[in-house]
Amino acid sequence: MLDGKKTLFSGMQATGNLTLGNYLGALKNWVQIADDYQTFYSVVDMHSITVRQDPAELRKRARNLLTLYIAAGLDPEKNCIYYQSHVSGHAELSWILSCFTYMGELNRMTQFKDKAAKHADNINAGLFTYPVLMAADILLYQADVVPVGIDQMQHLELTRDIAIRFNNIYGDVFTVPEAYIGKSGAKIMSLQDPSKKMSKSDENPNGSIYLMDDPDTIIRKCKRAVTDSIGCVKYCDEQPGIKNLIDIYCACCGKTPAEVEAEFDGKGYGDFKMAVGEAVVSVLKPIQERYADLTKNKDYIDHVIKENAEKASYYSNKTLRKVQKKVGFPEKIR
Ligand code: TRP
Fold first, then answer.
1. How would you class 164 by CB atoms within 10 Å of its CB: exposed for 0-12, middle for 13-18, buried for 19 or more?
2. Residues 26/216, Cβ–Cβ less than 8 Å
């Protein structure tokens, strides 16, 4: 509890260009619930180096992502938006927690297995202990809730286990966080293969709508979306392409699938796809405009970066001091 509100932590990696799926599935949610919590939204650049990055590119993307948080509607005066690497407590707590995490637990992480298979030439220790750093992110701010996608649930479970284990030894040090799963229907699939999640690392650029795509590109990608030969706009598992487009449409204009079915009853896929494209444009355009304005204002973004890193450091240091004392580190002489 900070200022009478529960605390929320979440983070995103600045690798790849953010997609409509990231926005509708995560960022939009973050904005909607932000007022109810004391929030920390981090650009988790330390997590990104578990796979090899081009340094200049990583730096650029990290800043773009931070700017995008603001453009999407997170007020940086109210929400602590910051770079993970600017707050040394993440690394410090991560080390301590790694001494309370078992090899066996980390070995069971499915994301590690997937990533190790994908980056077989670089299975580094950081890739293995990635979930410990994530636990440190969350526990450092005594977060009550953590909005995460289903793919991060296993990491959050581990975070809870570590917190409980630590508390059992040292007393109530950490808040045990809960997952915040957003409303269903927000899981957006690839436009080219509706059995796969829309991903920023998709090789086929037509499968994903990127947040910075211009209107023509968005409309074109929607028109080219893979559907079926059934020919009616119906929300069902037999029509995964259409189902996904309905999900996108609903998420963009707040309608229910039933309303969309009624709206396009007797109409063809062409009309429907056009409407989906336009709905996406109407959601992304204001974000893109705000983003363009923000990028012109370097001093403002720099100010946000500095102020919020200080704010995050302040809160994280409180937890870190407590933890250091509990495990037996000598007090600093001030
Ligand atoms: N691992 C998360 C992802 O790839 C990002 C992340 C890092 C995160 N630390 C976090 C998410 C803490 C929630 C809370 O999506």
1. exposed
2. no
Q: Among residues 6, 200, 255, 318, which one is catalytic?
A: 200
Q: Is 225 helix (H, G, I), strand (E, B) or coil?
A: coil
Token digits of residue 253: 């204009």
Average pLDDT value over all residues in the chain: 95
- Regarding the beta carbon of 30 and ligand 1, being less than 6 Å apart is answered no
Return the amino acid letter for 12: M
What gap in Å lies between CA 274 and CA 272, rounded to an integer? Answer: 5
Would you state the pLDDT for residue 203? 87
CA dist list (Å): 200 to 13, 23, 41, 196, 197: 11, 11, 19, 12, 10
* Lowest-pLDDT choice from 250-254, 272-276, 299-303, 321-325: 250-254
Alpha helices (H) along the chain: 20-22, 28-33, 45-48, 55-71, 89-98, 103-107, 110-118, 125-140, 153-170, 215-223, 240-253, 257-263, 269-296, 298-327
Main-chain phi, psi angles of 179, to 5 degrees: -75, 145
Amino acid at 55: P
In whole angstroms, what is the distance from residue 231 CA to residue 269 CA? 7
Indicate the pTM of the whole model. Answer: 0.93
Q: Phi, psi (5° rounding) for residue 149?
A: -80, 165
15 Cβ inside 6 Å of ligand 1: no
CA angle 302, 31, 276 (to 5 degrees): 115
CB 242 within 8 A of CB 268: no
Torsions phi, psi of 197, nearest 5? -65, 140
Q: Is the CB of 84 under 6 A from ligand 1?
A: no
Calculate the CA dihedral of residues 71, 77, 81, 85 and round it to 10 degrees. 130
The residue type of 255 is K
